[in-house]
Design goal:
With 106 residues, this protein is an alpha+beta fold. The chain has 2 domains: 1-42, no CATH class; 44-106, no CATH class. It has 3 helices and 2 strands, in the order H-E-E-H-H. A two-stranded antiparallel sheet has the order 1-2. Strand 1 and strand 2 (28-38) form a beta hairpin.
Length: 106
């Protein structure tokens, strides 16, 4: 069963939400794990998010066939969603820098 299957019939999909408060230096401040139900599932692709963030397409190796064209940009984002994605990207960068500074792998 895929995420979104039960939502289509109005039942809601069961989820586990992991919430983490992180400062802009990548430090964990607090966390929670909760069970939940979601009703309005919105699926987006990595390609669409990368495009919004200005991240160039990744080079992918296909050992059993030729390169595939990147999928068309199919998702539109609100201004607030774009802002949130940029904030999440900055937090991700801070977390990576913090892990590398502490001698951890990505």
């Amino acid at each position: 069963m895929s995420l979104g299957d039960r939502s289509k019939s109005g039942l809601g999909d069961r989820t586990i939400t992991l919430s983490v408060k992180v400062d802009m230096q990548g430090n964990f401040l607090d966390y929670k794990a909760r069970a939940g139900l979601v009703h309005k599932i919105r699926k987006v692709t990595y390609h669409d998010v990368d495009q919004v963030l200005g991240i160039p397409p990744r080079m992918t190796h296909y050992p059993f066939g030729g390169p595939q064209e990147p999928p068309e940009h199919t998702t539109t984002f609100t201004e607030d969603e774009v802002t949130d994605l940029h904030i999440l990207n900055r937090l991700m960068d801070a977390q990576i820098k913090r892990r590398l500074a502490n001698g951890h792998a990505l």
